[in-house]
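Tutorial handout. Part one gives the primary structure; part two gives the three-dimensional structure as C-alpha cells.
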Amino acid sequence: MKKILLTTTGLIALGMAPAMAADLAARPYTKAPAAAIAINNWTGFYLGAMGGYAHENSDGVGTLSGGFAGGTVGYNWQTGNLVLGVEADGAWADVGATLGIPGLASVDYTIRSMGTARGRIGYAFDQVLIYGTGGYAWSDNRLTATLLGLSASDSKFHSGWTVGAGVEVMFAPKWSVKAEYLYRSLESANYFTAAIPGGVPVGTINLNSVQVGVNYHF
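Part two.
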C-alpha cells in the first residue's frame, strides 16, 4: 500500500511540474515602484540675513558707492509652479562719496540705511525659484559740509521705487540662499533748509545694487 501511495504521489508531482514551469514563464516581470520623491513647496513665512553692494547709476563726479548689510522678512504662496510673495528688507549702509579735501573743505554725502518693501512673482523648478520683484524703496541720507575743521550736517529721508530679479535655491530643509539685482530710484531732497533759503538740492539718486542672502523658512 505504501509503495502504491508513493508511486501515485510521484506521478502527480511529475505531471504538475511542467504546468507550474509554464505558468511561471508566462507571468510578466513587474519592477517594484520607485520610492516617492518629495516635491519642495515654497509656501510660508521666512526670515533671513542679507548683504551687498550698491553703485550710483551715474558717470559724474562724486558717484555714490559702498556696501550694506541687514535682514529680510517675507511670505510666499505657491500654486503649481507659480510662486507669489511679499518681502521687506532693511540694512545698515555705507554708500557714499566725498568731494573736496577731507578736513579742509569738503562735502560728504552718505546713505546710512536703506530698505525696500516689494512684491515677488516667480516660477519654481522644485527647489530652484526664479523671480521678478518690485515695489517701494527708501533711504536715510546725510550731507556733511566741512570747512577748516568746522562741519555741519543734515539728514533726510528719501522715498522711491525699486525693480529687479533674482534666483533662490532651497539647499537644505527649511534653508535657502538667494542672489538678486535691484535698481533703486530715490527722490530728490533739499538739505540745510533751516540755514540756507531754498536749501542745498540733491537730485534723484539711482542705484544699481546686487545682494546675496540666506533665509530660514517656517
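Part three, for discussion. Residues 1-22, 33-38 have pLDDT under 50 and may be disordered. The domain at 44-217 is CATH 2.40.160.20 (Porin).
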